[in-house]
Amino acid sequence: MTAEVLVLNREAVAIAADSAVTLRDPDPKIYNTANKLFQLSAVEPVAIMVYGSAAFGPIPWETVVKEHRRRLATETFDTVEQYASSFITDLSSLVSHYSARTQADLVRRIAHVALAEVCNRANEIIDELDEDDDSFDDADRSHILMEVMASQIAHLQTVPCIDRVSASVAGRQIGSAIPDWNNYLRESFTRFTTNSSLNRRARALVRTALRSVSPNPWTSGVVVVGFGSDQLFPAFSHYVVDGVVANRVRARHLDSAQINEDSSAQIRAFAQGDMVQTFMDGLHPMYPEALRGLVKRTLDLLVERSNTKMHGVLSDTDYEDHVAELLEIVSAVVEHFEQDLHDLLQKKHSDPIMSIVSLLPKEELAEMAETLVSLTSFKRRMTPEAETVGGPIDVAVISKGDGLVWVKRKHYFDRNLNLRYFERDRRLYTTSNVEEDSNGS
Question: For residue 432, which of 113, 335, 349, 407 sits 20 to 30 Å off, Cα-Cα?
Answer without folding.
Answer: 407
